Amino acid sequence: MRLVIARCSVDYTGRLNAHLPLATRLLVHKGDGSLLVHSDGGSYKPLNWMSPPCSLTTEEPGEEESTAGVIDVWRVTHKKTGDALRVQIYEVLHDSAHELGIDPGLQKDGVEADLQRLLAEQVELIGEGTTLVRREYPTAIGPVDLMVRDAAGAAIAIEVKRRGDIDGVEQLTRYLELLGRDPHLAPITGIFAAQEIKPQARVLAEDRGIRCLVLDYDDMKGIESGVPRLF
């Protein structure tokens, strides 16, 4: 992971356009190729980012940019959509790289672990004829919660959360990208399952072809409350 603190401006072009004017920010370039642009506020959320699969290249600033004080230009391009994040760097205050190694993954709390177990026992909630392949299906970047196959035998990877937000969708997207390279699983689809799914996470998931499953914890435990809904 590379951490750079720099005075920079950022432009995002693609399905939407966005601009961050010149300011001092933290640039996080991860081993999976993603780039996150952080400020000193806004909690954990980046101001802008590019998710994998993507690649970073450096460019020489143009004559007009050099005159304005730009010393380096980063371009991060999404390999599938062509969306691009262009960072104009005016001054570097800190630049370091760190090898983090393989992360064991987030340890789930009791409710989240129970949701995973209950959904594994009640895979028919996903669809008639669905069968469980394995819980905690291993990948090189951590285990996906559930691997199942539908009635036609197609593979489905499922990520289970108590509260579903954008980070969970990003996590499942990374799993699907990796698992999709396995000829025994491809073409693989994904389901994002949670007790509550935030609207922004639902929009992102559906945009990426990931289905959303709202789970009723009490009902799955046998306490009458409601019915899980697949959207």
Automatic annotation (TrEMBL):
A Pfam family assignment: NucS_N
Q: What class of enzyme is it?
A: hydrolase
Where found in the cell? Cytoplasm
Domain Endonuclease NucS C-terminal residues, every copy? 111-229
Task: Tell me which UniProt keywords the record has, alphabetically.
Answer: Cytoplasm, DNA-binding, Endonuclease, Hydrolase, Nuclease
| Location of the Endonuclease NucS N-terminal PH-like domain | 2-104
One GO cellular component assignment for this chain's record is: cytoplasm
| Protein EC | 3.1.-.-
Gene3D superfamilies xref list: 2.70.180.20, 3.40.1350.10
InterPro entries hit by this protein: Endonuclease_NucS, NucS_C, NucS_N, NucS_N_sf, tRNA_endonuc-like_dom_sf
Q: Organism's domain of life?
A: Bacteria
GO MF annotation list: DNA binding; single-stranded DNA endodeoxyribonuclease activity
UniProt xrefs under PANTHER family: ENDONUCLEASE NUCS
Family statement: Belongs to the NucS endonuclease family.
What does this protein's UniProt record list under function?
Cleaves both 3' and 5' ssDNA extremities of branched DNA structures.
User: What is the name attached to this protein's record?
Assistant: Endonuclease NucS
List the source organism: Microbacterium aerolatum
